[in-house]
Write a structure and sequence with these properties.
Layout: H1 2-16, E1 21-26, E2 39-42, E3 48-52, E4 55-59, E5 64-67, E6 77-83, E7 88-93, E8 98-102, E9 105-109, E10 118-121, E11 124-128, E12 143-146, E13 150-154, E14 159-163, E15 169-171, E16 184-187, E17 190-195, E18 200-205, E19 208-213, H2 216-219, E20 224-228, E21 233-238, E22 241-248, E23 251-259, E24 267-273, E25 278-283, E26 288-293, E27 297-299, E28 313-316, E29 320-323, E30 327-330, E31 333-337, E32 349-350, E33 356-360, E34 363-368, E35 374-379, E36 383-389, E37 394-401, E38 409-416, E39 424-430, E40 434-439, E41 444-449, E42 453-457, E43 463-465, E44 474-479, E45 485-489, E46 494-498, E47 501-504, E48 520-521, E49 526-531, E50 534-539, H3 540-548, E51 557-559, E52 579-580, E53 586-590, E54 593-597, E55 611-617, E56 620-623, E57 627-629, E58 637-642, E59 654-658, E60 667-668, E61 674-677, E62 683-692, E63 699-708, H4 716-743, H5 747-807, H6 813-846, E64 855-856, H7 857-874, E65 878-882, E66 888-889, H8 893-909, E67 915-923, E68 926-933, H9 940-951, H10 960-963, H11 966-976, E69 980-985, ...
Parallel strand pairs: 11-12, 57-63, 65-67
Antiparallel strand pairs: 1-26, 2-3, 3-4, 4-5, 6-7, 7-8, 8-9, 10-11, 12-13, 13-14, 14-15, 16-17, 17-18, 18-19, 20-21, 21-22, 22-23, 24-25, 25-26, 27-54, 28-29, 29-30, 30-31, 32-33, 33-34, 34-35, 36-37, 37-38, 38-39, 40-41, 41-42, 42-43, 44-45, 45-46, 46-47, 48-49, 49-50, 50-51, 52-53, 53-54, ...
Helix pairs in contact: 5-6, 6-7, 7-8, 8-11
Length: 1003
């Protein structure tokens, strides 16, 4: 009965120790904005995203970045949908607006037809069915989900399928009340329905049931099914166990992930990361739990045994070890107990017959294999520290109490004559306590003590101190498969013994490897080094490369408690600090259990990429792309290196290099991924980041530019300007000194030249004045002629009107009124004309000093029209002003007014019973003014004369008596405003005067 009880206990303990995991919990106390995690997804860049009722959260394995300042009514979000592989992940907030997560950042976007979270059909609203658990608390809701061939519509009592091509409807014979919505899920492109009545899982294709499966876990009414279509993952929660459900080769594959206690309640979202072996559980009330699985198995002693502190162990069979208490353990726990008692835990060895050698105080005990390891006393008063044997003899390293009155031990290396402890062939004495020894070759042994390493010659009996200049406490001596000898020490790291010289290996970042216990080498050439603070892994090739080139960087990969240990402290100080088993597993003793693992199955996790796109400048977050522009006034700049990495952060090696600093070299940044800058000078700086991505030392690099503009006095051009000004100052100072000496010799000459220039200027001014006076006299003559010419018409009209009145014997009242009105109007026009005489004077005397003004051309013509309107009406002639009312010009107003006056005067004189039309045309800065009449028309000879005169007015003879002053004056005035006139006789009757004017401001 006792035998069966022991077997049951062993089986019980094996069950206990099969599950190896760690749990990390996150809530509002350590990173989350809210304790309800609605959904979980991983994007194509490796970031984990969470939806909460207070924003969207991005997680990179070390820190949470919260996004919650969206232009929405609230920041509550539910489930994810979309295509992570296409960088298009969507979620919908309570306000109904769609949020797109793309390029590692969320933003509010318009909903496209392909990405809608609900559709309306037959006056029924169907919500997108993307996760079967998110709706379980909302009864009465209708759902839809598209498949490759069609769309499924799920209502409270029915499931309907519509084919995309034929639009045919298929009503499935399934009663799907809402409380059982979780019964429907999709894996890849296969749709499944759980039928609890038949205890079958039915597969549906194109709206028809095509096959059924018997899966008790899926059909168990106590099971909770968690399905996420966007993740293409299905999970089963049954009791405290969590299973993963997959569908491959037309069958279900259900595997148990973990068994948890009191953590499966309130779970509303699940995601499993196969790459990092992590299970993410989102709770409705307790935030996020991350379950990390490990390939390490830690085995502890049964509760009935003392504490689980292990030291020396030996391989026992191909998959077990035995300790100094006779307990046999494999990765499932205690499998057998030999009941060794009262042995010290620091020494254990096999002899040539696989008998176990142990120590009890100062006695040597041998447990015989033939007698099922029953103990016998082998030798008394022997403090055996280390032991090994070869084909001919035993080798023992023993401690001796010092006899010189000092406290401590000395050592003796015993070489026995045969495979027994009877006859000693050689003895080698050491002044210090022995720790470890190993055979170097057939002629030499390596022996370590608490003070140094020694090479012992078996032929000459000489002892060579290999570290005479330093004191080293040797802990272990290991020979690797390539024949190299590696020495571990207590407190000073480990060394390579090469050519009788110890070459020290570099430390890790935290100096934990300063006290390595031993080195275990796997078949891939990696060293596994247990320490007092973690287990380290490093390729031997990297260490040997460091020996050749000390600039080579050695990176140690660290495993800690998060990898599956109960403690980070492994145990040394014994003759055996680790074992290699026949099945390929390694076993390491620790302060809390034995750690079993297969080194070839342990994966090293490294990041795949880095992203530098966020910065905190004086407390304000800024996003950028490759170029970061910063002002010199900025006091503090924090650049964030975002790296999705979900393993031990100790192995995340990120180094940065910034140009423009005093010491441009690679610098490691902290686990927060933040690089801080202060007091950076102006310029274009290169910020380079590299991250380790493999055990072989491969890095990936990322480079951005930091541009800080200089102040004006820091610019190159300013420095050049100041330098040039200084050089010019010196140059002109020298020249001034030289010129000062010459100046006195030229003073008289300068005075004479100055007076000569003054006299020449006076003469030149007199000549100019003479020409001006002559021109003014000529202009005055022309003015007199113009006045005479212009007032003739209205005076003659008054005379004719008066004559007509005198010749009439009988006046009617109406006729008298007409005559008086005509005389009044003509007199008034003559009066107004005399007022304009001042304008004529100004034209000739002040036109050169006048500044142009902006005025309306239409208004100017209108004024002239009013002046001549009475005369024209008397001749039954109409003056029509068609000039553009919006046309404003800079042409000299007085000059243009005189020109128009003269031309209108001529047209009125020679036009009776007709029309005088004035029009304008604009092309760029050129204005064309047309004055067209229907009078008698100008003679062709006159037109030819004025045309030639216009081209050479300075030299042509003026025929004033023959042709009068009018048009001569017009030509003179046109020269002043750089204008021209084209005179053309109309085909029917009348003349057209075409003025070509330049409209520009002349200051």
């Amino acid at each position: 009965m006792q035998k069966y009880t022991s077997a049951f206990l062993l089986f019980f303990f094996s069950l206990i120790y099969t599950q190896q995991y760690n749990i990390q919990s996150y809530n509002t106390d350590n990173g989350l904005p809210q304790n309800s995690v609605k959904d979980i997804i991983k994007d194509k860049y490796g970031f984990i995203w969470l939806t909460t009722e207070n924003g969207i959260v991005r997680y990179d394995g070390m820190k949470f970045v919260v996004y919650k300042n969206f232009p929405l009514n609230n920041q509550r979000f539910t489930f994810f949908y979309g295509y992570p592989e296409k960088d298009s992940i969507f979620t919908t907030g309570d306000s109904g607006k769609t949020l797109l997560i793309s390029k590692r950042s969320p933003k509010v976007t318009k909903t496209s037809k392909r990405n809608v979270d609900f559709i309306s059909r037959d006056n029924i609203n169907y919500f997108l069915y993307s996760s079967n658990y998110i709706y379980t608390t909302s009864p009465g809701i209708s759902l839809y989900f598209p498949c490759q061939e069609g769309i499924y519509f799920i209502r409270e009592n029915s499931i309907k399928y519509i084919n995309n091509l034929s639009k045919a409807k298929e009503n499935l014979n399934i009663k799907a009340k809402y409380k059982n919505i979780a019964r429907i899920f999709v894996i890849d492109k296969s749709v499944f329905f759980i039928d609890y009545q038949s205890k079958k899982v039915q597969k549906i294709e194109r709206g028809k049931i095509v096959s059924s499966y018997n899966e008790p876990l899926l059909t168990d009414a106590k099971s909770k099914i968690y399905w996420s279509r966007v993740n293409n993952q299905v999970f089963i929660f049954n009791g405290n166990s969590i299973y993963r459900c997959e569908y491959e080769d037309k069958r279900f594959k259900i595997s148990k992930l973990v068994q948890l206690e009191d953590i499966t309640e309130n779970i509303i979202s699940v995601y499993y990361d196969k790459t990092y072996k992590r299970l993410y559980l989102g709770s409705s009330t307790y935030g996020l739990q991350i379950v990390s699985f490990t390939d390490f198995t830690t085995v502890q002693r049964p509760p009935s045994k003392p504490e689980s502190v292990f030291y020396s162990t030996l391989p026992y069979g191909s998959s077990s070890v035995i300790n100094t208490y006779g307990e046999v353990y494999n990765r499932n726990g205690l499998v057998e107990d030999k009941h060794f008692k009262s042995n010290i835990p620091f020494f254990l060895a096999y002899d040539q017959e696989d008998n176990v050698i142990a120590r009890k105080a100062s006695d040597l005990l041998l447990y015989q294999k033939k007698k099922d390891y029953a103990k016998i006393v082998s030798k008394r008063n022997t403090i055996l520290i280390d032991f090994f044997f070869d084909a001919k003899r035993y080798y023992a390293f023993e401690a001796l109490e010092k006899t010189d009155g000092t406290i401590g031990y000395s050592g003796v290396l015993m070489v026995y004559s045969d495979l027994s402890f009877k006859t000693v062939k050689k003895r080698f004495f050491f002044n210090d306590e022995p720790t470890k020894f190993l055979k170097f070759d057939k002629d030499y042994l390596l022996a370590g003590t608490t003070k140094g390493l020694y090479k012992v010659s078996l032929k000459t009996n000489k002892i060579i101190n290999l570290n005479p200049d330093t004191e080293l406490s040797i802990r272990n001596i290991i020979q690797s498969s390539d024949g190299n000898f590696w020495i571990t020490t207590s407190g000073k790291g480990f060394y390579l013994l090469k050519n009788n010289r110890l070459i020290k290996m570099p430390y890790d970042a935290d100096n934990n490897i300063s006290s390595p216990h031993t080195i275990l080498e796997d078949q891939n050439g990696f060293f596994w080094i247990p320490t007092n603070n973690g287990l380290y892994k490093v390729p031997e090739s990297k260490l040997l490369r460091y020996v050749q080139d000390k600039k080579t960087r050695v990176n140690y990969y660290r495993f800690s408690k998060v990898s599956g240990f109960e403690t980070n402290e492994f145990n040394g100080g014994s003759n055996v600090c680790g074992n290699k088993l026949g099945n390929g597993e390694f076993v390491l003793p620790s302060l809390d259990g034995l750690v079993f693992f297969n080194p070839t199955e342990i994966k090293s996790y490294y990041p795949e990429n880095i992203h530098i796109e966020r910065a905190l400048i004086d407390g304000k977050e800024r996003f950028f792309n490759q170029i970061l522009n910063i002002k010199q006034e900025s006091n503090r700049i924090d650049i964030f290196i975002d790296t999705p990495y979900y393993s031990n952060p100790d192995n995340l090696v990120i180094e940065t290099k910034l140009s423009g600093t005093t010491n441009v070299k690679w610098e490691s940044i902290g686990k927060d991924g933040k690089f801080s800058i202060s007091n950076l000078t102006h310029g274009n700086h290169s910020f380079v980041v590299r991250v380790l991505v493999s055990d072989t030392g491969k890095y990936i690099y990322k480079k951005i530019h930091i541009i800080i503009p200089p102040y004006f006095y820091q610019t190159l051009w300013f420095k050049i300007l100041i330098s040039s000004a200084l050089l010019l100052f010196i140059y002109f100072l020298v020249r001034w000194r030289l010129s000062f000496l010459k100046k006195r010799n030229h003073e008289l000459e300068e005075i004479i030249n100055s007076r000569t220039r003054s006299l020449s200027d006076t003469v030149e001014k007199l000549e100019i004045t003479k020409r001006k006076l002559h021109k003014e006299i000529e202009q005055q003559k022309k003015l007199i002629g113009t006045i005479t010419h212009d007032i003739t018409t209205p005076v003659k009209f008054i005379a004719l009107t008066a004559k007509e009145a005198l010749n009439k014997d009988d006046f009617s009242e109406q006729h008298s009124e007409k005559i008086l009105n005509s005389i009044y109007k003509s007199s008034d026009q003559l009066y107004n004309f005399t007022i304009t005489l001042k304008e004529y004077s100004d034209i000739y005397t002040h036109h050169q000093s006048d500044k142009t003004e902006l005025y309306s051309l239409h208004k100017l013509i209108e004024e002239k029209k009013i002046l001549f309107n009475a005369i024209a009406e008397n001749n039954n002639t109409a003056i029509i002003n068609n000039v553009d009312k919006t046309l404003w010009v800079w042409i000299g107003k007085n000059i243009l007014s005189a020109i128009v006056h003269n031309l209108l005067d001529n047209s009125v004189k020679f036009t009776k019973d007709g029309f005088i039309t004035i029009e304008s045309n604009v092309e760029g800065n050129t204005i064309t003014l047309l004055i067209r009449d229907t009078g008698i028309g100008m003679d062709e000879k006159k037109i030819e004369y004025y045309t030639k005169l216009q081209d050479n007015i300075e030299n042509e003879k003026l025929l004033l008596q023959k042709y009068g002053m009018g048009l001569h004056l017009v030509l003179q005035l046109l020269q002043m405003i750089e204008g021209k006139i084209v005179i053309k006789k109309n085909k029917l009757k009348g003349t057209t005067f075409k003025l070509i004017l330049t409209n520009k401001k002349n200051d």
